Amino acid sequence: MLATVIAFTLRGVDSLRVCVEVDIRPGLPTFSIVGLGDQAVREARERVRAALQNAGFEFPQRRVVVNLAPAYVRKVGAGFDLAIACGILAAGGQVPPGALDGFAVHGELSLGGELRPGRGTLAIAEGAARHGLRGLIAPVPNAAEAALVDGLDVFPASDLGEVGRVLRGEQAMPEPPPPLGAVPDPDEQPDLSDVRGHPGPIRALTIAAAGGHNLLLSGPPGTGKTLLARRLPSVLPALTRSEAIEVTRIHSVAGRDNGGGLAASRPFRAPHHTISAPGLVGGGTVPTLGEAGLAHHGVLFLDELSEFSRTSLEALRQPLEDGRVVVVRGQQAAVYPTRFVLVAATNPCPCGHAGTPRCRCTDADHARHRRRLSGPLLDRIDLLVDVQRPPAEALAAPPLTDSAAVRGFVEEARERQRRRLAGTSAGSNAEMTAALVRRHVVLDDAGTALLRRAYEAGRLSARGHHRVLKVARTIADLAGADAVAGDHLQAALGWRLEEEHADALAA
User: pLDDT tens digits for 266-319?
Assistant: First the structure.
C-alpha cells in the first residue's frame, strides 16, 4: 500500500515542499530511504523503527521503501522522522490513509517516540501556508513559533503515540498555542547618554540610522569608536512585525532560539577579526548562515577592520551591494538576505597614532595598512568619520544627547522615506536604485555643479556619485525638507571626502 505525507526541507532561510512517499508490500523485510537525503535522513531508519515500536505501534515485517520527492533536491536534518513514521502508519493501515490530508508534518523522533524540537520551524510553517495547506504538526516546543503564521492550524504534538491517537480519532486535536509575543532583551541596551563629546560622530550615527547607510569610524585607539558603534542599534527604529518575523525565521534556521519569542530588537553582530569568509557571509561545505545573514535588519560591526583577512572583507561586496548572498553548492543555490547597516572601526595606522609624534610606523607599514582595505570595499561605505580624543572638558560635561532623542529624529526621517518609497522595493534611502535616486533627488544648478566638480576631480566613482545623493536625501529628510538643497549635498560630500577636498570643491 502507498501513502504520501507532506514535509518540508530547508534551503537557505526558506523551505521547499517534499512529498514523503511510503510503499509497503510483501517481500523480504527491508527498510530503505531514497531521495538524496543526508546522513541524518538515512539514520532515520533506526530512529523511526524504534520510535514506532516503543510507542505501541507495529513495524511492518515487509518491504518498506520511503522516497523523498523531488529526488534531485538534497534533504537535510532529522525533521523528516515524524513524516516517515506517519507515512508507515498510513501505508500499513494503522491510521486512516486520509487523516493527514491538508497537513504538513515536521519533527525529530527520539527512540522512545518523543518529539524533539528542531530548527527552522517558522520557515516550514510559512512554506505550508504558501502551498495552501491548512495545518502543521510540530513538536510542542516549536508550535508557538509556527503559530506566528496567519491562517495555519498548528497541532502541537508531544510524542508519536499522541499523533497516532489523534489521527485515529481516539483523541481530540490539542488546541493550537497562542502566537509568540516579543521577548525583550534581558541585557540593557547601550545608550548614547554614555558618550561624552563627539558631536560629529553622533551626527554621523544619526544619518546612518535614518537612511540605513554604512559608516567607517577611524581614529586613534581609545577614542570611543567601539563605544559609538555599539550604540547604533539603540537609535534605529523598532522592528516592524514583518521584519521581526523575518529576523525570527533567520535565527530559527540558524538554530538560535531567540529566547523562544518573537525578535524584539534589531540584531547586532560583532564577529572577531579571525573569522573566515564563509563564516562572515555564509557558505561552507554544507551551506549555513554567516554573520552577515544573522545581522539582517540590524547592524554588522567589524572592529579593527584592517585586521580582517582580505578574502573575508572582499566577500562582503555582494552583501553590501545586493542585500543578499547567493551560495551555490552541488548545483543548488541557497539565498541568504543580508540587508544590514555596516559599521566598521579602524586605526589610521598599525600603531594608531598616524600624524602625531607618537607614531613609530614606517612608510612601508602605512602602505601595508592601506592595502588591507581595498578601494572597492571603501567605495561601498557612505560615511567616513574621523573620531579623535574628546577634550577634557567634554569628559566632565553632561552628555550631548541620548538614544531616545536621536531615535525620535530617526523615526521621523524613516516615516518620510516610507511615504516617498511606498510601492517600491526600497525600504530606506540606502536601498534606492539608480532610477529611484533620479526620481527623488533633484538638485538645483548649484548642487549639480558642485557634484560635477567632485566627480570630474576624480574624488568620486560612479557608485560614490549615487551614494552621495542618497546621503544628501537622508540629511534633507532629517531636516524635514522636501527637496535636497545645496547645504545638504555639501554635508554629504563632507562625510564622503576628506575635509580639505570638500572645502575646495565648495569654494
Answer: 999 999 999 999 999 998 777 889 999 999 999 999 999 989 998 999 999 989
CATH number for the 2-167 domain, one of 3.40.50.12780, 3.30.160.20, 3.30.230.10, 3.10.580.10?
A: 3.30.230.10
The C-alpha atoms of residue 383 and residue 345 are separated, in whole angstroms, by 12
Q: How many CA atoms lie within 13 A of 461 on its CB side?
A: 11
Instruction: Assess contact for 500 and 460: CB atoms under 8 A.
Output: no
End-to-end alpha carbon distance in the chain: 85
pTM to 2 decimal places: 0.90
Cα gap 87→68, rounded to integer Å:
11
- Which residues are within 8 A (CB) of 390 and not within 5 positions of it... i.e. 6 or more apart? 196, 197, 198, 223, 224
CATH annotation of 194-400: 3.40.50.300
pLDDT, tens digit (0-9, with 9 covering 90-100), for 333-381: 889 999 999 999 999 888 888 878 888 888 888 888 777 788 888 999 9
How are beta strands 30-34 and 14-25 bridged, if at all? unpaired
Exposed (0-12), middle (13-18) or buried (19+): which is 222, by Cβ within 10 Å?
Answer: exposed
